[in-house]
Every structure is written in C-alpha cells, then in structure tokens.
Amino acid sequence: MTVEPEIVLEARNITKRFPGVVANENVSLKLYRGEVLALLGENGAGKTTLMNILYGLYHQDSGEVLIRGEPVRISSPSESIKRGIGMVHQHFMLVPVFTVAENIILGAETSKGPFLDLKVARQRIRELSRQYHLDVDPDAYVKDLSVGQQQRVEIIKALYRNADILILDEPTAVLTPQETEELFAIIRSLTARGASVIFISHKLKEALAIADRIVVLRRGRVVGETTPREATERSLAEMMVGRSVMLEVEKGEAHPGAPVLTLENVTVLDDRGQQVVNGVSLEVHAGEILGIAGVQGNGQTELVEAITGLRPVHSGRVRINGRDVTNASPRRISEIGCVHVPEDRQEDGLVLTYSVADNLVLNIYYAPPFAHGVVRDDRAILNHANRLIERYDVRTPSPLTLVSALSGGNKQKVIIARELSREGRLLIAAQPTRGIDVGSIEFIHQQIIAERDRGAAVLLVSAELDEIMALSDRIAVMYHGRIVATMPAARATREELGLLMAGAQPSNVVQEPATDGHAPVSVQRRGV
Amino acid sequence: MQITDTLARPSVARLPWVTIGVWGGLAILVLVAYARAPQATTAVLTSTIRQSTPIILGALAGIMCERSGVINIGIEGMMLIAAFLGFMFNVWTGDLLLATMGALLVGAAVGAFHALMSITLKVDQIIAGTVINILAVGLTGYFYQQGLTTRGKLTPVSIPVLADIPIIGPVFFSNPPITYASLVLIVVIHVLLFRTVWGLRTRAVGEHPAAADTVGIAVNRVRYINVIIGGMLAGLAGGFLTLESVGSFERNMTNGRGFVSLAVMIFGKWTPFGAWGGSLLFGFANALQSQIQFLKNQLPPWLAWIGDLPPQFIGMLPYVLTIAVLAGFVGRARPPAAIGKVYEKE
Q1: CA–CA separation, A168 vs A37, rounded Å?
Q2: Residue B7 above 60 pLDDT?
C-alpha cells in the first residue's frame, strides 16, 4: 500500500460489563485510513457491544477511544456522527413508510426555516449515488426497496453525514450472493476514496474476501489478528471457537422413500392479508432433505407456519403421510408425526419463563408418562429432561434452570432435543442455526442428517446458502412466494442459486429430463 | 408482500376522481336542499361546523400524540378537565381570552401528566389514558358547584363581505373564535406534520424510534412535546364546550366526544384532513338530529314518519353513524408502527 498508514480510529483496553457478563475485556484495535478491517467472532463474542461503544450507544467502563489520534468521549450517536463515524446496523434503521430522501436527511435535515427542503437533499443524494455507484431513487419509498437497496440507502445516509469511518454490522446476513458481491464493490470504491471500513461478520469466507486485516474476538477478548493472506477458513474458525471444528458436513448418500409431505398449490396470506405464498407444490420424501433457499421474506416463514398449522392455508392441500392435514390443528399435525424447529426460538420455540425441563415436554406434557389425567408427573418430566440434556449436550446448570438463562446455541439445542427425540416422520427445520455458535451449528447439522438417515423426511428452510448446500439432497428456491426452481443439490451452484434467489428468470438453469424418479429438475416460470 | 396504503403521507395519487365525485355530489345535494328549504339547510350546515369543532380538535390532539408513538385514549378526560377549569377561569376572571388560555394551559398540564406516565414512568399507555378519563369525571364532578354564573361566552364574529355569500358565508365566515381556530389548526397541523423538520422527526419517532435515535433525535423529548401539544388541542376542545358552545359547565358534558375524536382520527387515517372529513360527518349527523326535532312539522310528507320516531332514536344517529363508518368504510387503517411502545435503548 502506498498510502502512509494513518490511524483514524483506535480503541485502547476497552472493557464493558453488563450484569453477569463481561462483554468486552481489554479490547484494543486500530483502524488505518483506507482499509477494511474485518471484526470476526461468534454471536455473543462482543463485536456489536464494541461497535455500539464506538458509535456512542453505550459507554465503556474503562479504556479509551481515539479518533485521528485524539482521545474522545463519545456519549451519543450524534457525537459520533459529528466525528465522522457512520454505522450501518444489522437491522436497518430506516422508516419503511418514508422515502429514501426523507430517511437519509432525518436528523440532518435541509430546511428553509422550519420547512423541509427536499430539493437540495435530492441533489446531494444523486451526487453521492453517482460518485459511489450506489444506485437508488431518492423518491422511492423504502418499503418498496429490496434489502440490498435498503442497505445502500443506509450507506448513503452515512456518507451524507460526511462519514469517513464506516461500521457495517453483519452487512451480508440478509443479502443474496450477488448482492454481497455488489456490496463488496461498493466497499472497495469507498476505501479507494480514503474511507475506512470496519466489517463485522461471523462468515469466514467473506472476511477473507474483503478484509485487509482480520481481528478475531472470542468471549469479549481479542484472540488474534491476521490477514487474509496468512489465514485460512480453518485457522479462523479455530480462533473464533477456540478448538478445531469441522466445517464440512459429512453425509452419506440419501435413500429417498415414499413422499411424506405433499403440498398442492398452497397459497397463504400474511398478517396483512397479502398473499405471500402463491401456489406452492412440492414433495418431501422419507430419507431426504429438501432445502428451501431464498432471501428472507419471500414467503418461507408463512409457508412453514401453514404446514405446521400455525397459520391458515388459504387454498390448496397439505398432506402428511397421505393424510389431509390442511388447516388441521397444530396438535393434530404434531401427533401425526410432524416435528417443528421454528424460526424464532425466543417467540415460538420456547417459553422463556419456564424451566429447561418444562420446555422439553411442551409438545407431550399432556400424555403419559408425563401426565396422569390432569396431574403432571414431575419425576417423569425431570428424568426425561436429564436424559435429553445428556443426549443432546445441552449446557445448563440444571434441568430446573430457566431456559431464558441459556445461550442461544443451548436454547436451540433444547428445541432440537424436544423435537427430534420424538422421532417424527417429518422434520421441519426453519433457520435451525441462525445466530448460534459454530460448535452448536456443527452439532445441529449432524442431528438433522441423523434424522434423515433414520428415515425421516426433512424440510429445511434457511437463509444461509452454505447451510442449504451443505445439508440438502434437493434444493428448491423460493422467490416472491413461488418455488421458482427445484434441483438436486449435487447439480446446484452458488451462482445459479443466488440468481434464482434474486428473482432472475430461470432460463439459464439446466433443464434436464427426469432421470431418477424422485428428483427431476423442474423449473417453473414465475410471473403471471 | 408490501403494505399498499401509505400512512406517512396522505395519498395524493388516488384522490382526484373519488374526491371530486363525493364533494361534487355533496355540493349538488346542498344546493338542492337550499333551493327547497334555505333556512333549514343553512341551519344544519352551520350547526354541522359547530358540532364538529370539538371533534376535530380532539382528533388533532390524538393525531399529534399517536404520530409520535403515544396512544392517547385520555382525550375525553383532557377535554373534560379543561372544560371545567376553563369555565372556572371564566367565573373567576370574567375574561374569556384568559379563560381560553387557561383551558389551553390545563390541557398542556394534563398532556404533560400523560407523557410523564406513559413515557417516563412507562405505564401502559391505555391505562394511563384511562386514569385521566376516570380522574376527570371524578374531580370535575366533585368540585363543580351548581349556580355559578359568568358574564357570557365567545360569540360569532362575522368576517365582512365573505359572511354575506349565501350558504358559505354563514357556514364558514360567521363563527366564534375557537371554531375559526379549529379550521386554521387543521391546515397548520397538516403542514407541521408533512412539510416541516419537526413533523418528519415526529413521524420518524412514531414509526421507528430506534432509527430516529441513531441519527441523534431525542426520541422521548419529541414525544413529550407532541403529547403536550396534543393536550393543548384537547384543552381547546374542552374550552370550546364551556366558553363558546354551551357557556356553562355540566357534569360529564363531554359526553363521549373524546372517544368519537379517536374514532374520527382512525377514520382519517391519522391525517388532519381525513379526520376533518370524519368530524364533519359526525357533526352533520348531530346537526340533523337536532334540526329534525325542531322541524318535525315541516318535513315533506314522504319523510313525515321520521317525525314520529322516538327522539331517543334520532339522538342515536351520530353514534350509529360513527359505528357504521368505522366498521364499514374505513377499510384497513394502519396506525404508526411504534404506537404504544415505550422506547428503550437496548
């Protein structure tokens, strides 16, 4: 690099405690002008806490922050904005019913007296868009934009405030692979113009692809610093987790049997009455994993809720094992042999104020041996809990601990234990590893494959393309409520799936005649 | 997948034909009625404006609070307390201007109380509003003594020339001050919400407070100020009742107007002009109801049966209409997204 390495931002020995946990302990890092620094770590490693300190949302207990060599005390976001720090939050901070321009100027409005002056703002937004190739229409409503476009709005929002230090918190979590590439191009054009970027992620590939330097956090401490040239995915994963991990999932050949789940032209409405699942037909066979790939918000959530009886099926048929369970009660569907790992473990998967033991019988508490008539059998429930905690490696102080006290990975293991221990015929797993540590992900993946090998049909819904590709035997891509393509996993490529997820017409998808009975490459045209 | 109705800004695109049709039809109806019964028509229309005044003021109060994300079902109580104290100021000082200011200040104070409960103390906002409503009935009922007299009430001021235009003149340009103020306030609050920096921030705080916070807007401060402004508007509505409309205080005289205001606010999808439309509808039903009782004997033969209905039934008209309108015509109204939620930094 020919640019002299000027330090624009430095954190020295930052410590931040929350009741019961040390989120950051003696964290120090430097950010040079014009570089991309990847901050890598598992959920709960303290990345977001550190960034919130730099952005003025929290204040550190000890340690200091220096901006361009000058010690500063950042007590509020407006102060960090003034000092040139811009942050793109993981959950976008945009008002959906406002236009792009209104969102960008909010808090830094251009005005004539008390009145808004959007003309000047639009002008500047257009200039910035041109300069950094961030193509957005200032008059579009944010709710009408794709996630990738919304992210650009966030970036412009920071640039509009003259930020030259940009913090991107898990920016690729909601993007398709193509959108991620575009984001990387934007990041490069930003650094080329002298901006510095902190890129927070738990995805190893991305950190290796975009960063100049990588800092790894584990349990609130900096455990290593490296560069993409020196590091490999494996070495980074070990640094993050603190032990060696298996990145690839080992799985044998699938031996698909008869169809277990059959959907015929299923349509589902969302809470607002809009049709978000538009005529989905698919089959999941015993002994196979069908992965549904798609960017979040394309109807996957509603589809899963409809299959499991949590949301009415508007039209079409749902069959499990040949039995019509369209709009049957969740309990009936569960008793027929459908087990469900729901997408939102805090809201739908667990009762947070119950103990681990009680959570482990949520789906069977009413039947013997856990209940005799109306009386529950605490001993049976406790024995059951101890068994599952051991078998599924749930790290909890005791079965009577409130489940809310467990870490994300262990909460998810409680759900996995409860559902998989029933040995159902159909497993529906929605985002089974979202936001949990690499170690738990490894374990859960093994469990899902074990279910398949036992002969269960598995419907896997995930926004993580890597997960879909690693686990699935067949892959269906969902876009705008439709299955736009189905293909054997062996023939799928990231690029192709990414294009389909982004709504590209599946014209360049290989269309082959069905060679083996159960897994034809079927491609449906979307759009009416 | 997307929400079709846009709350943040009144939908301009859909307006023209439906609106022109509705207003054109109404204008023709008014002209026909005027040709047949000029006095009764003018009386009904004038009364419509007066009856709708407290409703639109209450609705504007609701809009200010709820656009910033604070539910306010205490408008009824705010009105009642301000009506009572406004009246008492009139009794004590005999100065109607001071009394009106008093009603505004009382409204602001009750608004501040609501803000304190729902923002700082994080009381459930529905409960905070209910507290105000119950408190208002109890306090005003306890302190009110019968037989208090005042030196009068606010009287109509005719605007020269304009007041002489048939129909429009007496309806719009011959009103007492608070009624004029309410008409001006509809425009002022529309501009405030949709054209000013303050309005943009208010709506942002009501839709996505975390987003507002991250760009340096003091969420709770914005909410406090808007709830207090809302309180002042509700106070003015109360002042209208005792200082302009009736001239004296009666127990529980708001008679559900605060709740009708809320209905009207929802009817108008949290926009001032939409709410005004709703208020006029309610005002019209009220005016019709009182005029029918006067005009029993003058009804044309095909409407004579209306004169035979028990007066209680006719008295129900405005409320029945409110229910019908809310249930049938509003469609899906989308409230500000963050409404009713206390904002706490994570």
Answers
A1: 10
A2: no
- Cα–Cα dist A282/A518, whole Å: 11
pLDDT in tens, B228-250: 999 999 999 999 999 999 888 99
Dist CA A501 CA A496 (whole Å): 9
Taking the Cβ of residue A273 and every Cβ of chain B, the question of whether any pair is shorter than 8 Å is answered with yes
How far is Cα of residue A29 from the mean position of the Cα atoms in its chain?
26
DSSP string, A297-326: TSSHHHHHHHHTTSS---EEEEEETTEE-T
* Rounded percentage of chain B residues whose pLDDT exceeds 70: 92
| CA dist., res. B227 & res. B234, Å (int) | 10
For chain B, say whether A112 makes contact (Cβ under 8 Å): no
Phi, psi of A260 (to 5 degrees): -105, -50
Distance CA B166, CA B292 (A): 22
pLDDT at A520 over 60: no
Residues in contact with A497: Cβ distance below 8 Å, sequence separation at least 6, in sequence order: A177, A293, A465, A468, A469, A475, A477
Q: Cβ(B224)–Cβ(B69) under 8 Å?
A: no
- Name the token pair of B99: 């009394």
Tell me if residue A472 falls in helix, strand or coil: coil
Q: Exposure string (b/e) for A157-178, b if CB count within 10 Å is 16 or more?
A: bbbbbebbbbbbbbbbbbbbbb
Entry field: residues in chain A = 528
Coil, strand, or helix at residue A13? strand
CB A431 within 8 A of CB A343: yes
Containing B76, the helix (H) or strand (E) segment is helix B75-93
Entry field: residues in chain B: 346
Buried b (16+ CB within 10 A) or exposed e, A355-367: bbbbbbbebbeee
The answer to whether the Cβ–Cβ distance between A143 and B7 falls below 8 Å is no
Cα of A76 to nearest chain B Cα, Å: 7
- In 3D space, the residue among A177, A222, A175 whose CA is nearest the CA of residue A37 turns out to be A222
Contact B197/A115, CB-based, under 8 Å?
A: yes
pLDDT(A320) > 90:
yes
Return the structure tokens found at A301: 């959530």
Q: Can you tell me the distance from the alpha carbon of A396 to that of A378, in angstroms, rounded to the nearest whole number?
A: 19
Most confident of A162-171, A406-415, B305-314: A162-171
Residue ranges and CATH numbers for the domains of chain B are 22-145+173-329 (1.10.3470)
Phi-psi bin for B252: left (phi > 0), alpha (psi -120 to 50), beta? left
- CB contacts < 8 A, A to B, total 92
B224 touches B65 (CB < 8 A): no
Give how far Cα B29 sits from Cα of A454, B26, B88, B285, Å: 76, 5, 42, 15
- C-alpha dist (Å) from residue A393 to A410, A411, A416, A452, B232: 8, 11, 11, 20, 61
Q: Domains in chain A, ordered, with CATH? A: 7-241 (3.40.50.300), 246-337+425-528 (3.40.50.300), 345-423 (no CATH)
The chain-wide mean pLDDT, for chain A, equals 87
Query: Residue B299's Cα: distance from chain center in Å?
Result: 31
| Of the partner residues A55, A114, A143, the one whose CB lies closest to the CB of residue B2 | A143
Closest Cα to residue A351, out of A305, A406, A390?
A406
- Nearest CB to B1 within list A111, A114, A274: A274
pLDDT, tens digit, for every residue of A406-444? 877 888 999 999 999 998 999 999 999 887 777 788 889
Radius of gyration of chain A (CA): 25
Out of A76, A97, A116, closest to residue B207 by CB = A97
Name the token pair of B45: 């229309």
Residue A5 pLDDT greater than 90, yes or no: no
